TrEMBL record:
Residues spanning the signal sequence: none
Family under the similarity heading: Belongs to the glycosyl hydrolase 13 family.
Single GO MF descriptor: hydrolase activity
Residue ranges of every copy of the Glycosyl hydrolase family 13 catalytic domain listed in the record: 11-383
Keyword Amino-acid biosynthesis: no
Keywords per UniProt: Hydrolase
InterPro entries to which the protein is assigned, alphabetical: GH, GH13_cat_dom, O16G_dom_2
Protein name: Glycoside hydrolase family 13 protein
Length: 511
């Protein structure tokens, strides 16, 4: 079976994982130095957030050169070394590809701005005349995902589209040159040995050429999200990937209305996998969680794609905090993780969740970098709170993040108690829970079969001998009969006494 059908993939947010040179920002050498930690954790692959040269207006999702490494993170040879060393340790590398937009500092966009309206080099982006007699009103009502309008006026009066920040102009995917360029970028990194690509905003590349206003009418087709034309791009890309040896993979970042729409991207000649955000966005509530699992498995099975599961990433509030924060948030988060890791399919872990890190909610405004914070005037705090650098050990001012005195976002003093070093020697730590779960998970096979359970409890079998029970409620329950007789407790998210499963607890049994 292909590795990506059941892999556990660890997301490394390069800015915040490990800093080798003491400048307060993580880098590729830092990642390399921590590969043994990831190997010991028991993951199969690493997904690296963008490390390419970039003005960093959106922490690297504004790419100025797709074929190099930003000096903040190292040099190209560091990427090669990282890929090679990861492979030696049996870890695969997935990199981030950002095809919807480039940086406004990309040579293509600079050339487009320098050229007059109508010039061929403008055709790589989406330049349009404005509305009104003087063209001083934007071409339509589209809004940026980061707040405000999606159009910025160039000095000569035309407007360009950016579904994200103004420093991230959208490419025109009807242009042959754009398609050819990205096919070449894929080959460039495949030749360097990467095992796959995470595709940023994979549902956004195609736009309605008429550029109509977003109507907001229920049932109306959206003019720039999830258009059918986008599928042609992925069919071309799949052919390229399939031409390479090894079992390489695409994972799409795809936010669509229904699991049915998601499945279209996963037809056998398109992407292999996509993030499944239905599970991530489900509340900590038994019926909602079960519905998210059942819907995903049912729909994806039709196209032969594995489900993927994810609870946290660099764009969302960490799941400890989403589930209530503090002690109860951590209990639920640990239980949710055991639930996720018992499901069939592949799973994504976001750096630091194995340490039980919460969202940092009290960052001073002055240190926030996320354009979401800036563009909403602070109404939305943005995503910096889940991007705070990792605490590795108590032996430096930045808690082992790097040799320098500080990290680009300040770490809460309480994180001194959550370092990887400290958790390493505590058998009850979240780190050791993840390690134990990942070790058991390696042998899990078979479909999922639900057991009948009372409200607030989820229980299912995998294969003949494995049982997962989750008490989603806060009060203790008696475990189902299947977990009582002749069952061995393999691991649990909090301490289990006899037949009683405490509130907000998941347990795995061999039976
Ligand atoms: C999704 C990425 O995960 C996010 O961090 C980024 O801001 C947007 N795409 C725009 O590239």
């Amino acid at each position: 079976m292909s590795w990506w059908r059941h892999a556990v993939i660890y997301q490394v947010y390069v800015w915040s994982f490990a800093d080798s040179d003491g400048d307060g920002v993580g880098d590729l050498r830092g990642v390399r130095s921590r590969l043994p930690y990831l190997r010991e954790l028991g993951v199969d692959a690493i997904w690296l957030n963008p490390f390419y040269p970039s003005p960093q207006a959106d922490n690297g999702y504004d790419v100025a050169d797709h074929r190099d490494v930003d000096p903040r993170f190292g040099v190209l040879a560091d990427a090669d070394d990282l890929i090679r060393e990861a492979h030696t340790l049996g870890l695969r590398i997935i990199i981030d590809l950002v095809p919807n937009h480039t940086s406004s500092e990309h040579p293509w966009f600079r050339a487009a701005l320098a050229a007059p309206p109508g010039a061929a080099v403008r055709g790589r982006y989406l330049f349009r005349d404005g509305r009104g007699p003087h063209g001083d009103r934007p071409p339509n009502n589209w809004t940026s995902r980061f707040g405000g309008r999606a159009w910025t006026r160039a000095p000569d009066g035309q407007w360009y589209l950016h579904l994200f920040a103004p420093q991230q102009p959208d490419l025109d995917w009807t242009a042959d040159e754009v398609r050819a360029e990205f096919q070449d970028i894929l080959r460039y990194w495949l030749d360097r040995g990467v095992d796959g690509f995470r595709i940023d905003v994979a549902h956004g590349l195609a736009k309605d050429p008429q550029m109509p206003d977003v109507s907001g009418e229920p049932g109306s087709t959206h003019p720039h999200w999830d258009l059918d034309e986008v599928h042609e791009v992925y069919r071309d890309w799949r052919r390229i990937l399939d031409g390479y040896p090894g079992d390489r993979v695409f994972v799409g970042e795809i936010w669509v209305q229904t699991t049915e729409r998601l499945a279209l991207y996963l037809r056998p000649d398109e992407l292999h996998t996509a993030f499944n955000f239905a599970f991530l966005t489900a509340p900590w509530e038994a019926t909602a969680l079960r519905t998210a699992v059942d819907d995903s498995l049912r729909v994806l099975e039709r196209v032969g794609a594995p489900a993927t599961w994810v609870l946290s990433n660099h764009d969302v509030v960490r799941h400890v905090t989403r589930y209530g924060g503090g002690e109860i948030g951590l209990r639920r988060a640990r239980a949710a993780t055991l639930l996720m890791l018992a499901l069939p399919g592949s799973a994504y872990l976001y750096q630091g969740e194995e340490l039980g890190l919460p969202e940092v909610e009290d960052l001073p405004d002055a240190v926030r970098r996320d354009p979401v914070f800036q563009r909403t005037g602070g109404a939305d705090p943005g995503r910096d709170g889940c991007r705070v650098p990792l605490p590795w050990s108590a032996d430096s001012a930045s808690l082992g993040f790097g040799p320098g005195p500080e990290s680009w976002l300040p770490q809460p003093p309480a994180w001194a108690a959550l370092t990887a070093e400290r958790q390493n020697s505590d058998p009850a730590s979240t780190l050791n829970l993840y390690r134990a779960a990942l070790a058991v998970r390696r042998d899990l096979t078979g479909d999922l079969t639900w057991l009948r359970t009372p409200d607030g409890v989820l229980a299912f079998r995998r294969g003949p001998g494995f049982l997962c029970v989750v008490n989603v409620g806060d009060a203790p329950i008696r475990v189902p009969p299947e977990a009582r007789t002749a069952a061995t407790l393999l691991t649990s998210s909090s301490r289990v006494h006899g037949d009683e499963l405490p509130g907000a607890t998941a347990a795995w049994y061999r039976c």
